[in-house]
Amino acid sequence: MVDEEEIEVLVITSQRKGKGMLFPKGGWEKDESIEDAALRETVEEAGVVGDVEHKLGKWNFKSKNDDTCYEGHMFPLLVKEQLEFWPEKDVRQRLWVSVREARKMCQYWWMKEALELLVNRLTAQANVDQGRKSNL
């Protein structure tokens, strides 16, 4: 079993005041893969570099400002480096928090679902790893 208090996730402030914390997100260019876009967005918005892992899922949601529908793909990123300077440093703050804190801070339902999928994945992986150790 994974202790949720031992898992840290990175959240960033929204560019709009009072919109809470969220996970790095953004669009992707026609000449890049979704995974490359995820990595680019985390560098731009949160100033972290790492390994993009297997996709958690895809969500469809409406914009709060208009009736535009969006498709969001969420990926875990195993952070390898935290940059001192990054493109949106002056407009965003980044914060490492526990899963419990992230649940409270994230305002988007689909980000909360992605967080639960991440916890479930890490728990399943820990159980597999524990099973391997007990068979040795």
From TrEMBL:
Q: Which UniProt keywords apply?
A: Hydrolase, Magnesium, Metal-binding
The similarity annotation says:
Belongs to the Nudix hydrolase family.
Can you provide one Gene Ontology molecular function annotated for this UniProt record?
Answer: metal ion binding
One Pfam family assigned to this protein is NUDIX
CDD domains given in the database record:
NUDIX_DIPP2_like_Nudt4
Name the InterPro entries for this protein. Answer: DDP-like_NUDIX, NUDIX_hydrolase-like_dom_sf, NUDIX_hydrolase_CS, NUDIX_hydrolase_dom
Does the record's keyword annotation contain Hydrolase?
Answer: yes
- Output the Gene Ontology cellular-component terms: cytoplasm; nucleus
Name the UniProt record assigns to this protein = Nudix hydrolase 17, mitochondrial
Classification via SUPFAM superfamilies: Nudix
Source organism's superkingdom? Eukaryota
Q: Which residues cross the membrane?
A: none
Q: Which cofactor does it need?
A: Mg(2+)
Annotated Nudix hydrolase domain residues: 1-119
